[in-house]
Design a protein that fits this description.
There is one protein chain. By secondary structure, the protein is of the alpha/beta class. The protein has 2 domains: 2-178 and 349-363, Glycogen Phosphorylase B (Rossmann fold); 194-348, Rossmann fold (3-Layer(aba) Sandwich), CATH 3.40.50. It has 16 helices and 13 strands. The strands form 2 sheets. It has a 7-stranded parallel sheet, with helices on both faces. Helix 7 (133-144) links the parallel strand 5 and strand 6. Helix 8 (208-215) crosses helix 13 (314-321).
């Protein structure tokens, strides 16, 4: 039996794409794998959980901008304090868990003595580890020469094209994120207006302010629903009206209904490791306006006339929405929706993705 510890930066109950994905990893049912959740807040109901004390987790989550940059640069030193606070538990983890899977790669410094660590693209890769290009180049060279992150032998990529950014000394395997395709099923719609949808954390990097600004310049032929919370929740609320609807956090059944009743999914995010919500929207048969920064991961949908890469600023959104009714003629056809749904089911359903993931993780120990 392989024993894997999945490390999340705060709690599995934090409502983010990465936490939802790790929760799905933990749902995998096999008598050949024992899964342990390692987190830094005593929240959640997953039965096999180890909670560690962490100064670094609180500082990382509680800061932004330059302060967050400074915290990340000081990670090796701050996490040395965390090591002292968790000596017994870290010893137990080292002796009883075969593999550490990092959903946030900064925590490498907390587990660096472990013999088997999986670095993942849920966090930053070596070439974009910080927001400063010259530092990233230095970090990459140090990793390449086995000076930094010495115990990283394998990287889990979500996007296969990023293999070129991994030094040759490190193995890789590529398994994308998945969705429960049986939940996100197309519906037949005949909307009198173009019903648009955004789902995600309400923060600057997700492009929500650009969407709001663009919609304030559009006429009554367009309707927008916004799902999510974050630092920009209040500005979104202030703009609600007949054509802009704000839902905050909603349960899966209501979210599925919103996907099913919408025509267009707008996602101008500029900082995204993957973008699970795009898979959910495609599975539901929506036409996607996606930030050009997400290229080439969804090229398959572009070729199938279900996705358009756009400039993530408000002018780019406006330009793409000008002739949206003509653009969605193909994607609104129910037969075409079913074709897209079937493609997503065949390529990205969680049942397939989880089997593939654990096959690679098991092979990493052999």
């Amino acid at each position: 039996m392989i024993k894997i510890g999945f490390v999340v930066p705060s709690s599995i109950e934090y409502i983010g794409g990465m936490e939802k994905t790790i929760k799905r990893y933990l749902s995998y049912d096999s008598d050949k794998v024992q899964k342990t959740l390692i987190q830094f807040e005593n929240k959640g109901t997953y039965e096999n959980t180890i909670v560690l004390k962490s100064v670094y987790s609180k500082l990382n989550i509680g800061t932004s901008g330059f302060l967050n940059f400074a915290v990340r640069i000081l990670a090796p030193f701050i996490l040395s304090i965390d090591i002292l606070m968790n000596i017994k538990k870290l010893k137990f983890i080292k002796e009883n868990i075969d593999m550490i899977y990092l959903a946030n790669n900064d925590f490498y410094f907390l587990f660096k003595k472990h013999k088997n660590i999986i670095w993942s693209e849920h966090g930053n890769l070596f070439h974009n580890y910080t927001g400063v290009n010259y530092l990233n180049r230095i970090i990459y060279k140090m990793v390449e020469k086995n000076i930094l992150f010495k115990n990283i032998k394998t990287v889990h990529l979500l996007n296969c094209y990023n293999k070129k950014f991994i030094p040759d000394r490190i193995k890789t395997f590529c398994v994308p994120n998945g969705i429960d395709s049986d939940k996100f099923i197309p519906k037949m719609n005949k909307n009198s207006v173009a019903k648009c949808l955004f789902v995600g954390r309400l923060e600057k990097s997700k492009g929500i302010q650009a969407i709001i600004n663009a919609f304030n310049m559009l006429d009554k032929r367009y309707d927008l629903s916004v799902v999510g919370k974050g630092p920009l929740s209040e500005p979104v609320k202030k703009n609600t009206g007949d054509r802009l609807h704000y839902y905050g956090y909603i349960d899966d059944s209501k979210l599925i209904d919103l996907y099913g009743s919408s025509d267009v999914f707008i996602f101008p995010s500029t900082l995204e490791n993957y973008g699970n919500v795009i898979l959910e929207a495609l599975s539901s048969g929506l036409y996607i306006l996606a930030s050009s920064t997400l290229r080439p991961r969804f090229d398959f949908a572009e070729k199938m006339n279900y996705l358009e890469y756009i400039s993530p600023e408000e002018n780019g959104i406006l330009k793409s929405l000008e002739n949206i009714n003509k653009k969605i003629e193909y994607s609104s056809n129910y037969d075409n929706k079913l074709k897209m749904h079937e493609y997503i089911k065949q390529e990205y359903d969680w049942k397939l993705i989880l089997n593939d993931l654990y096959s690679h993780l098991s092979g990493n120990l052999e």
